[in-house]
């Protein structure tokens, strides 16, 4: 009887694990949609702004909200065209200069700009700001940790050059521990920030898709002892 119940429980867990990614995807999508509706829905402060834009054209509140939403999308699209063109550097520099003049907002804007800018780098092999790197604790051959380089400039700690790296946490990579490690322990990772995020969110399961697999003889699966 105990064996029968154990087998049924195993089948139940297998089904749960198979459908869990779908449940999490739907749940995450619903959560994000609810959050966006609260921030930009018809009854929100931003939604009232969009409705105010549309009320200049139509009297209906619902139609006014939709028109305002389309106007905002059009403005974002035009701004995206400007940023994607040859004047990108000038526009970004101009906005950066304006934002940096604000004492507190400027610091936050600069940090977010550097962090989000890392997601546009694909397969970079240089040590850039907020770029994915490998940290070999104890030197080459030691424990390898996939991290983000917080700043390319080294600082002096105990008379030796150290680099600030952010070691994310799985499965939510936005956070983690800020560590100062010897500069010789840090090596550029030939992947983009999106790949790093995917590896951490999947808790390492997608690592073979982005990292070079090891062609070793098949020694069998590793099973945990129960």
UniProtKB/TrEMBL annotation:
Entry keyword set: Membrane, Transmembrane, Transmembrane helix
Record has DNA repair as a keyword: no
UniProt xrefs under PANTHER family: COV-LIKE PROTEIN 1, PROTEIN LIKE COV 2
Membrane-spanning segments: 12-33, 39-58, 65-85
InterPro entries: COV1-like
Record keyword Membrane present: yes
Pfam family, one: DUF502
The name this protein goes by in its record: DUF502 domain-containing protein
Domain of life: Bacteria
Signal sequence range: none
């Amino acid at each position: 009887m105990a064996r029968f119940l154990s087998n049924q429980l195993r089948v139940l867990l297998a089904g749960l694990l198979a459908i869990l990614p779908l449940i999490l995807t739907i749940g995450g999508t619903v959560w994000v949609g609810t959050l966006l509706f609260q921030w930009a829905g018809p009854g929100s402060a931003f939604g009232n702004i969009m409705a105010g834009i549309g009320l200049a054209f139509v009297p209906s509140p619902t139609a006014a909200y939709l028109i305002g939403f389309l106007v905002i999308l059009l403005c974002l699209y035009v701004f995206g065209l400007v940023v994607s063109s040859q004047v990108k550097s000038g526009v970004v520099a101009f906005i950066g200069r304006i934002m940096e003049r604000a004492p507190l907002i400027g610091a936050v804007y600069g940090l977010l700009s550097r962090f989000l800018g890392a997601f546009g780098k694909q397969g970079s092999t240089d040590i850039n700001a907020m770029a994915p790197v490998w940290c070999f604790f104890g030197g080459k051959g030691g424990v390898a940790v996939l991290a983000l380089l917080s700043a390319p400039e080294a600082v002096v700690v105990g008379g030796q050059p150290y680099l600030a790296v952010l070691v994310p946490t799985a499965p939510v990579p936005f956070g983690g521990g800020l560590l100062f490690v010897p500069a010789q322990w840090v090596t550029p990772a030939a992947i983009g920030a999106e790949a790093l995020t995917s590896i951490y969110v999947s808790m390492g399961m997608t690592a073979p898709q982005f990292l070079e697999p090891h062609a070793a003889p098949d020694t069998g699966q590793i099973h945990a002892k129960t």
